[in-house]
Structure formats: structure tokens, C-alpha cells
Amino acid sequence: MKIALIGTGKMGQTIEQLAIAKGHTILLKINHENIGKIDLNELKNADVVIEFTRPDAAVSNLELCLKAGVPVVCGTTGWYDELNKITDLFTSKKGALVYASNFSVGINMMFELNRILAKWMQSNSEYRVSLSEIHHTHKLDKPSGTAVSLANGIIENNTAYSKWTLEENEANAIYIDAKRAPDVVGTHEVKWESPIDVIQINHHAKTRDGFALGAIHAAEWIVGKKGVFTMKDILFS
After folding, report:
1. pTM, entire model
2. Catalytic (active-site) positions
């Protein structure tokens, strides 16, 4: 499989190493310095694009991939306020997109457990939920896209909550404690607490390899398909 990488930071470098180890070819390496010079015909030669960049660049990068007619796997977060626009665009133009706030198989298992527990807690109002996440100091969005996905999974399955917030003790809101620290790959925790006990679901990423391997798996899966998908489609469909 010929892969074009948009984003050559730490995640892009990890994807490159693991993709080559799996027998794939890195056809293009694109970043903010050369993206304006990329010929669409070059991009069209790729079987798939994997995009890990910045929130302010993701939408234009996705539009570029759609214009080239190449399926794309997007791991950038922080742009989801334009998700409906991008979904409509890819659907109408018969493009192919997999997006995820986190490509780790483990964290996607956590997403499913989180939804189930939120449903069960609907009838146990003595429990209050909160989230916490810790990432490296270079992460631009705060809270993380993964934390927002966890919060939305609760909101969609439990009527006691209507939004998430970074402020403590806000009514009907899920508090997210978002911290940044050196050399932390990513830690997420969902905590349901009552006056008598605490139930916790947590995920701690030891390395970036899990995110990278998940993105490569998504790239292998999306080739030949049309539509807009998430990791849930890949893992549980």
C-alpha cells in the first residue's frame, strides 16, 4: 500500500516507521512547509492518506485529499465543529474518510464500555461522573478530543448530563480535568462516584505505537470504500 503522510511530527514519524515495518511504502511526506507545493497528481498516486496535523489545518487538508480522490484517515482533533460540513462534502463527492479522536484499539474499547456504563447509571442517580485526562505539553487542544468523545458518549446515553465543562460543580455538566505534563503520551479516566464508593474506567497509553497501528489498520480498511466512518465501524461492524 502506498501511503501519503500529511504531518511529519512525532505521530507521523511513528506511523512511518510502523507502516514500513508492515511492508507499506511511504510515497509522500507532507508538512506545513511543502503542502503548498504538492501536485495533485502526486497525491493521486497514493492509495491512502494518513493525516495528523493541527486543528487549524485539518479541514483544508481533508478537502485537498477529497479533491485528489484519495481516501483519507484523519487523526487530528479540535476541528469537529466543522464535522457536519466535511461529512456532507465527502458524502456528496463520494469520498472516503475515517476520522477518530483516538485510533488506539484499547481506547475504542473504553469508548464502548463508557457508553454501556452511562446507560446503566441512568437509574443510579446517586453517582456523579467526572473525567480526567493528561497529555504531553505539546498537545494543542484542551481538553483532548478523546476526553470530549468520552463525555459525549455519556451525554448521549444518560439524560442527567447535557454538556461538558472545564469548570467544577456546574449543574448537569460533566467536569473534565485536563492537565498537561512533560512526556505523557495520554491518560484518560472516567470516574463515577457516590457517597459510598467509586467506579473507574481508565486507559493509559505507554507509547504512541497503539495510535499509529490503529491509524495504519484504518488505512488498510478504508481502501476501496466510500463514505465517512469511525473506528467503531472498523472494530465493531
Report:
1. 0.84
2. 135, 139
